[in-house]
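Box 4.2: Ligand-aware structure prediction
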Amino acid sequence: MYKTLKNTDVKNKRVVLRCDFNVPIKDGIILDDSKIRASLETINYLIENNCKIVILSHFGKVKTQDDKYKNSLVPVYNRLKELLKREIYFSKETRAVNLYMQVETLLPKDVLLLENTRFEDLNGNLESGCDPQLSMYWASLCDVFVMDAFASSHRKHASTYGISKYVPSCIGFLVEKELLALNKFVINAKKPLTVVMGGAKIEDKIKLIENFLEKCDYLLLTGGIANTFLKVLNINIGASLASKNPQILEKVKEILLNYREKIMLPLDVIVANTYDKNYVKYKRLNELDADDIILDCGNKTIEKYKMAIDNSNTVFVNGTMGKYEDQRFSNGTKEFLRVLSESGKIVVVGGGDSVSAVNNFGYTESFTYLSSGGGATLEYLTTSDLPGLSGIDEDDEVEVLDM
Ligand code: ADP
Ligand code: MG
């Protein structure tokens, strides 16, 4: 398995640490700093071990010069400084001779955060394309590379996979914790296992659904994903979001043929409509009109889904019950989270929006595990593989992650 930070000699060494600081920011204000907080354990361990620490992270996408102004890591630098309760340095350069010199003059326990790694994408996609020269340059800044950006571990970028090819490397505490939790609670779940899939786009999740159907006992569907299943079953969903892709529709048909007994679909919904933006109405599924747009599920659905949860030991949730960002359509998600929080079951939530909903509605402490990985969490649960970690050194003595 991957070499862990505890099993790596980092004492007094120069370390490049890859974090995921891709936090939500509006007008320069960080709306949720949990990704920064999640990195503190690893950073403090490196400080305790007298390391010289260079931190890399991407932030948003950088395609134009304008994106550079929008996507600077300066707000993250300021927050990280507060959370670490110490002075740290910031480099506007992601690569330069003077940056190399700056790293050389760091003292033990010094922390230097570099500007957004994706600024390098402006010169020809060097970060996202895993450019070897750039990877080697960043590797040259350290003796050991610590990969702790779990949410970026499904992609091979220069600052993740690239560096790990050129220097000794290990995973940080966050990546270790995520892998342990997903292995223990989801991949080797205590059965019966209920999987809840909601959210908007079925295209992104169809493989995960297929993968889960083989091992779960119940699959509860909501949101845009449920709509596509209802459409294939010839139930009128009005003007709701659903896939039009023939391959997806064919796949859904096949899934329904093979696994109908495990799959639960909504009974009632909250709809908007296409011509009146103030229209919000509760409807049973057989009452929909052509202009109705399903944006949340109703209480009868939640009551039905509660039965599956009561019969389970483990529940994995990905995707929200409805358009939770809009107060008028957030009740299904809130109500479902309340039911889950009172269930006493092992509950794991994965996915960017799903975890945001948990935090926004006050359930941060209510569940067994909240995975911070977004797309990486889903990729790991679908394929049991994270390409961004494939260059990390192996450690045959550690079996704990193989559970
Ligand atoms: P995660 O980020 O946790 O993987 P998703 O992105 O798949 O979750 O799902 C959350 C998104 O799905 C939210 O933006 C929400 O507004 C949207 N959504 C949920 N239900 C519906 C629906 N019925 N129609 C359209 N969008 C929906
Ligand atoms: Mg999302």
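In the box above, the bound molecule is adenosine-5'-diphosphate. The first helix runs from residue 34 to 37.
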